[in-house]
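Final report, closing paragraph on structural work. Over the funding period we assembled a curated collection of sequence-structure pairs, and we close with a single example.
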Amino acid sequence: MSDIQFGTDGWRGRIADDYTFANVRRCAQGYASYILETAQNKSANREMTVVIGHDKRFQSEDFAAAAAEVLAAHGIKVWLTDGATPTPVIAYAVLDKRALGAINITASHNPPQDNGFKVRGSTGGAIDPHGLKRIESLIPPASAVKALSYDRAASQGLIEKFDPAPPYLANLAKLVDVQPIRDAGLKIVVDAMWGNGAGWLTRILGGGKTEIIEIHNTRNPIFPEMKRPEPIPPNVDVGLAATRQLGASCCCITDGDADRCGFGDEHGRFVDQLRVFGLLALYLLEVRGQRGPIVKTLSTTSMLEQLGQLYNVPVYETGVGFKYVAPKMTETDALIGGEESGGYAFRGHVPERDGILGNLYLLDFMVKTGRTPSQLVDLLFSKVGPHYYDRIDTICTPAQREQVRATLSAAQPGTIGGLRVSGKNMTDGFKFILEDGGFLLIRLSGTEPIVRVYTETTRQDLVQAILRDGVRLAGLGDTASND
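Its predicted structure, as stored:
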């Protein structure tokens, strides 16, 4: 059996290679042991239950059932979603069912060959790094796994299927009044990326003057017309082209499990995920008049610090991943939390990324201000100045990782991309602060065998030069790609 290690958000692997039914059951056993170990520390209003959901990848529903059989064997009741379900809906079900946590069978934005095993705590949000390490340590060999057959567990009331949508939709209705969006007469292209977000915005916004046109909204585990269901170029190019061809008002995008939010403007141009984070924070602060802390990972935009100063709210920076963001949001009662990947969470909801709510807030921003998406970006830049972002990913084998880490630890560049380096942050990866307030970040992924090189800068003409210098600093030559 493979040596299972939990990364940023749980465990992911290649289907039929290391991601097998045996290994999923082992992970479920580790999680069951963790639940039993920590249940006594939970508040009295929690039940000995766990929510399990899944995405639309190959055999995800069968992997979810296998995990449910293991939890049932340990006397833990499973609320099993009645179909493929967005990650934020699964998270909200944890609160609604007063459960101790959740298992989510999904590899999110990974290539089609992969699947994953996400775990969540009693808040519905990510489990902190200490908890993830504990679950990992409790994963036994296959011979020690206990399971109860699905039919027997269901007959004993230990597995029960349910529809998680109604309580989630009821909470959305408290957060955003969608009637003005329905009545606005917008034309919205929705790209569900063959994933769990299909049908949700149509369900929420349908029945009015606004027209919803969905693409990639059926189940197809090979994800045609994209390399992976990650809401960044080139994966979003077909949706953006449809926006141009149809003369749509915007393009709303959700990734494979609908926890990430992508966005395209009225010209079919991608609004990158750092700008979207800035727009969402500006919307809550300016249009909604709300106040509260902002939580951001170190890989995302410095525009948030500027907004924090303008609106007199604190900004907290964490390591990469919602295993850091979610606990900090809970601790600080944050207004918004998010990361570079396009995942954003909001106060009054769950400390979990929600691509559906993120898109609704962007649409509400448009309607309440009467501005197009490109005009909203101009509004943001009028307050914080123009910012430019890009990212390069390149393969990094396990054998290369330590060499890359050692090379970067020793790196002391005076300039990057022609800009003076003013500081270095090694909290999570290798972040070089640049003289214009921007940054170069080089980070070994916690979910895939790749190195990510990111930059944000006020100098559009230097973006590619900064990225090239980052690849060279990592000792990777020019083998990387923006794909």
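The chain is about 35% helix and 20% strand. The radius of gyration is 22 Å. We thank the funder for supporting this effort.
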